[in-house]
Design a protein that fits this description.
Order of helices and strands: HHHHHHH
Number of helices: 7
Helix content: over 70%
Structural class: mainly alpha
Radius of gyration: 34 Å
Largest sheet: none
Oligomer: single chain
Strand content: under 5%
Shape: elongated
């Protein structure tokens, strides 16, 4: 029972971590003026709290399994695994819709960034579907009273069902993540160092250029005024000296 539940815990934790990576890539793919550092700190704190609650729940379930390995404890384990997967999917869905609504007015940096984010989003969608399928399967096991681990009546059927669940809901998403989204994630990580707040940098650059242009215009205007006064003074002095020359 412990070995059956432990991979699910690790996969759920990896699923939430993949969601944080997707959210960071989402921020890097758009031109925005939001404070990305504060958002990342909040997400990291939320991930830490979620992991703490996840492993604390698993520890309680393991204690119950070792103390009493009856059918009731196994049903509690199945129900808890179903609830954990549903909670993880609900949190991911909330974050997905929140970011898409919050940053709906900000454009993408480039078509390449949009395409990379789309690829990572498809991988995240596959993980979400696999978690939903796992939760539904365990819910059916819990409601119908099916024994997956110790089925003396049809052990081959239980083994085939477990293999299918592990293959579709855990092995396949991990393989797809390592195959299709690793390059795109590394691409976003490289751009994160050089382009953290592109709009803020452009605004600051435009402001410095405008300030330099204003100072240059002011200096040229002062030089022009000084030159104009000099010409006027010289013309006035020449006008004053003209009668003297005429008298001579």
């Amino acid at each position: 029972t412990v070995l059956f539940d432990l991979p699910n815990t690790i996969v759920v934790s990896t699923y939430v971590l993949l969601t944080l990576v997707w959210a960071e890539c989402f921020l890097q793919s758009r031109l925005h003026t939001e404070n990305a550092i504060k958002l990342k700190r909040r997400w990291l704190m939320g991930y830490t709290v979620f992991n703490a609650c996840l492993y604390f729940t698993q520890m309680i379930l393991y204690i119950l399994v070792f103390v009493d390995s009856s059918r009731i404890v196994k049903n509690i384990l199945y129900a808890a695994m179903t609830g954990i997967n549903i909670c993880a999917v609900a949190l991911v869905a909330f974050l997905y819709f929140y970011l898409n609504i919050q940053f709906a007015g900000f454009p993408y940096r480039s078509p390449q960034k949009k395409q990379s984010l789309t690829t990572i989003s498809k991988v995240l969608a596959l993980w979400t579907v696999s978690r939903i399928a796992w939760a539904i399967a365990l819910l059916v096991v819990f409601v119908c009273g099916i024994e997956l681990l110790h089925n003396s009546k049809s052990p081959k059927l239980s083994a085939i069902l477990l293999f299918f669940l592990f293959l579709v809901c855990e092995i396949l998403p991990i393989a797809v993540m390592l195959d299709y989204s690793y390059v795109q994630i590394m691409d976003f990580e490289d751009d994160n160092v050089s382009n953290h707040h592109p709009i803020g940098a452009l605004v600051e650059q435009d402001y410095s250029l405008d300030s330099a242009a204003a100072e240059n215009d002011e200096w040229l205007g002062g030089m022009h005024d000084s030159f104009g006064l000099g010409v006027g003074a010289s013309s006035e002095s020449s006008d004053d000296e003209e009668p003297l020359l005429m008298q001579v």
